[in-house]
Design goal:
296 residues, mainly alpha, 79% helix
Length: 296
């Protein structure tokens, strides 16, 4: 029964990465008619409210200190998503952006080294130069005229690494669904506040843009995080971390079919190197997955 639960969880998490890949498509379409910060702010507030309704019983008896810590992580998430959505709005290649953002996986232990003095494993020091070379191939595919959106995606990767480190260090005694709802709501409020200060809101929104907004909110945010929370409760975090690396792969595939995007040979090689770096950075977890198989 335990093995069946692991298989079920891993299939759910694979589906989560597919939803995340579609989220890039939905968001790019919605940005055609919405300011980026306003779009993400309202999207996260609505998604957080949906999760609140879904897990209402888990919100009883919360500790205020835990709520404050979750709110702090939400602020970091908001800054991270500000970089991400700006890069998405200005970038011309979703697949490239997804692979750059995925560098956050590699950067988590490096950021932990500077924040908490933790010692990254050898696999990280091997993965990091591979990722940097891959990033170079992505950014400099057309000579020195690289897209500035790559800088925003790299900022999102750093922010993601910082956010995950805070989550791992804060001991918050709350349900994962509650934690996610608080993070999304705080991040959404921050982004909406920044939008009201810096952006001009549209006078009207087309039905098509409204549809893409709902898809990105309900499918790529609320449903995705609900399934992710459930899937991660059934399998070790190490298994989930490896599976979540599939997100940039799906994003690149969907972008080719949806937007007819194409990558130069240098960009394809850069994506390949970053994917290899993600796998190398997770090598201890990958070995742990296959250890039970070897014991037979």
């Amino acid at each position: 029964m335990k093995q069946e639960s692991h298989v079920k969880a891993e299939l759910i998490l694979v589906f989560v990465t597919i939803l995340a890949g579609f989220g890039w498509i939905f968001s790019k379409e919605a940005l055609a008619g919405l300011p980026p910060l306003f779009f993400m702010g309202v999207r996260f507030i609505v998604a957080g409210f949906v999760l609140y309704l879904a897990g209402l019983k888990y919100f009883r008896g919360l500790d205020w200190q835990d709520v404050k810590r979750a709110g702090m992580v939400g602020l970091v998430m908001g800054i991270t998503m500000m970089f991400w959505v700006t890069g998405l709005d200005q970038g011309s290649n979703l697949g490239v952006g997804a692979f750059i953002t995925s560098l956050g996986v590699v950067l988590v232990p490096v950021v932990a080294r500077f924040m908490f003095g933790a010692r990254p494993p050898l696999s990280i020091w091997i993965a990091l130069p591979i990722a940097v070379v891959g990033l170079g191939f992505l950014a400099l595919n057309n000579g020195l005229n690289f897209e500035f959106s790559h800088v925003y995606f790299l900022g999102a990767a750093l922010g993601s690494a910082f956010q995950l480190n805070l989550l791992s260090r804060f001991s918050m005694r709350m349900h994962a669904l509650v934690l996610t709802a608080i993070q999304l709501s705080v991040a959404g409020c921050l982004l909406l506040f920044l939008s009201l200060l810096t952006e001009t809101l549209p006078h009207s929104i087309s039905m098509a843009v409204a549809g893409w907004f709902l898809a990105s909110t309900l499918v790529a945010s609320s449903l995705r995080f609900l399934l992710q929370t459930y899937g991660m409760s059934l399998t070790p975090v190490s298994h989930a971390a490896v599976i979540m690396n599939l997100e940039p792969v799906w994003t690149a595939i969907f972008a080719v079919f949806w937007f007819s995007e194409s990558m130069g040979s240098g960009q394809v090689f850069g994506c390949f190197l970053i994917f290899i770096a993600m796998i190398v950075s997770r090598w201890p977890q990958i070995r742990a997955i296959f250890k039970p198989v070897k014991s037979f």
